[in-house]
Specification:
Elements (H helix, E strand, L loop, with lengths): L6 H7 L2 H16 L6 H32 L4 H4 L13 H10 L17 H37 L3 H25 L7 H10 L5 H8 L1 H10 L2 H30 L1
Helix pairs in contact: 2-10, 3-6, 3-7, 6-7, 6-8, 6-11, 7-11
């Protein structure tokens, strides 16, 4: 996820209120039963790693590349126009993501004054990350469908299929989850920046109040499972509806 200012999250985490919220989220995650079987939890995390690395790295790269192409050299000067995951991962954010299901990548800094058309360019930069996640989910779903079809028809080992299938599926699901989550119109998520540019909300006084309190609002919403209630129907619609329909139409003439 992209934050307009690199100090936004850092300053928030210095607030005792933020640490209390993170602690509550950790307790909430523990009570959810995710850690009752450590071996199973570790195995699940290993399967998630490829999706996390690909999804977050590509997401942040897309923000950086879009800003760079639109005339802002800031991301390139900071070495962010790359798919190297070490340039995009925030260690604390990654640990939080694995432990409590909520985390963050290292935000891509931009300098809007370098854009010719600030509002249009800022919109493109904001939407670039989620667009990249959609493209990756679409492509990996097609790859997964093709690989599984070829594997079964070729009589490959069920163990090989069983090992490969969940990794590819998790890459698809992780990219869909990143896309949908980041489209929520709550700061500091991309959805808030997208809505801001569409409706030119920086001219409204309430925008600054909402921006300043966006992160605690987001964490409280997560504690109340509000994002899950929005994301799961959308994710299921994409994974079980849109993607198989489109790829089924494309692959049927090839394999059947």
């Amino acid at each position: 996820m992209r934050l307009p200012e690199v100090g936004y999250l850092r300053n928030f985490l210095k607030n005792p209120f933020a640490l209390i919220l993170l602690l509550i989220m950790a307790v909430h995650a523990t009570r959810g039963g995710g850690f009752r079987n450590p071996i199973e939890w570790i195995a699940d995390m290993i399967l998630l790693v490829p999706g996390l690395v690909i999804g977050i790295s590509a997401h942040e790269f897309a923000h950086a590349k879009a800003a760079d192409m639109l005339g802002d050299p800031t991301p390139r000067m900071q070495g962010r126009v790359t798919l190297n995951p070490f340039k995009h991962f925030d260690l604390i954010g990654l640990i939080a993501l694995l432990l409590i299901g909520f985390g963050w990548g290292k935000p891509v800094q931009i300098s809007p004054h370098n854009f010719r058309n600030v509002r249009r360019a800022s919109f493109i930069v904001a939407i670039a990350g989620v667009a990249m996640n959609f493209v990756l989910a679409f492509l990996f779903f097609g790859l997964c469908s093709t690989v599984m079809t070829v594997a079964y028809r070729s009589g490959l080992s069920p163990r090989l299929i069983g090992a490969l299938d969940p990794i590819l599926e998790n890459i698809v699901v992780m990219n869909l989850a990143l896309m949908i989550f980041n489209l929520l119109p709550v700061p500091p998520l991309d959805g808030f920046n997208i809505v801001t540019e569409i409706f030119d909300l920086r001219r409204r006084q309430f925008w600054y109040t909402l921006y300043n309190f966006g992160f605690p609002i987001l964490m409280i919403l997560i504690l109340l499972d509000v994002p899950d209630r929005i994301m799961m129907p959308a994710l299921n619609a994409m994974y079980y509806g849109f993607l198989p329909t489109v790829w089924g139409t494309l692959l049927t003439p090839i394999f059947f």
